[in-house]
Amino acid sequence: MSYFKATLLALLAFIISCASTTDPLTGKKVYTLLPTEEEIKLGREYIPQSIAQGEGLYPDGELQSYISRLGHKIAANTPRKLPYRFYLLNSSAYNAFAIPGGGVFITRGLLSLMENESELVGVLAHELGHLNARHHARYLEKVLGISLLLQVAALLVSDDDNLTGQLILQAAAVGAGLLTLKFSRDQERESDRLAVRFAVASGYDPKGLLSVFRKLKKAYREAPPEWLSTHPLPSSRIKEVSELISSMKLPQGLVRNTAAFERVKGRLKSKERAFSFYEEGKKLLKEGRREEALRKFRAAIAEYREFQMPYVFCAVILSDLGRLGEALSYADKAAELDPELFWTRFTKGVVLFKLSRFQESLRELEYAKRLVKGYADTYYYLGRDYEALGNYPKAKENFGLAIQLASGKEEWLQDAKRRYRAYGGR
Ligand SMILES: [Zn+2]
User: Fold this and answer.
1) Where are the domains of the chain?
2) 271-422 has which CATH code?
3) Which of 24, 182, 369, 415 is the most exposed, having the fewest neighbouring CB atoms within 10 Å of its CB?
4) pTM metric for this prediction
5) CA–centroid distance, residue 188 to ligand 1 (Å)
6) How far is the CA of 64 from the centre of ligand 1 (A)?
7) Cα-flanking dihedrals φ and ψ of residue 82, to 5°?
């Protein structure tokens, strides 16, 4: 492409992307590199990755729809109209976060810490505060700049099968940035103020947010909650929210708790044993005690048949132990319970590869890749599948991506490099 044409395209791209949008909070026109349409497209792409990092969706439809109903009720009282979605994750970490475009996530751990609905409303309203103040969009604009943002947006609307390696790497980098994104203290303050406003507008006692802050502060003495690593919580923040609430003339009859919340708590509690077996299993596995870990994961399944993650771990351990037939039956079950979870499809793909069922493995891994683009291992096993099936250009491409996405600790890394070089890669 000639220099002139490239420049013209870049200019055109700039004009198109530099759309004006209405600031949802002030009603004023603002110029943005990331129009809401693009923000939504971009964010949608990272929903499966957020779910995968949170160890999957909590496997109870009633709890999911409760969180969703409550979230939408608050969102209806916020100025920014987005296709909001609310999810409860399996993770035991104390965490809640939002991603661009309207995805809001809360962990089982944080929900377990709560004692009434106004606390949950406080946290969801805080995350809606970040989205309404366009904090994510601003972060993306600042970090990525125009050209990269446009490329990533193009990537997300393009046909998944024709993605170039460069775009996959960029999408992975954006995902990594988004999911570890830290807001500034001013942005946290702004979201706190909005949370109070949204909670009151939705008919809830805004002191719920304060009470979560205090619980997190207390939990901090045992282990730093994840929410605090992405949402700094200095004492000044508690003081400011507290002063803001005292200065307000609150309407009568604000809701603190509901029967629906108590019911949710009861359902969570009834599965506590399953989750404690699951957590013990993960700990044992980290220590390399695979047989004991396997027993814990099986115990978790016995307590909660619909809980997908222990099946995944059983499949991983059995596959490591060379018991591939058993591994496959667990992987099958996991994928059947939760076909949209990256871990179930990825694990099934790896087990099928080990069983030399390359065509079926390929199908699972290509699906897993569509869910989460930045996971290095997927590309290594895809490379192995393509190689076994005689598609060497695809094998080379996937080994190359695996190497570029690798953290350096992967046990297959040297093997991937050797194979990549054998195909003339450097
Ligand atoms: Zn925050």
Assistant:
1) 14-247, 271-422
2) 1.25.40.10
3) 182
4) 0.90
5) 5
6) 22
7) -135, 160
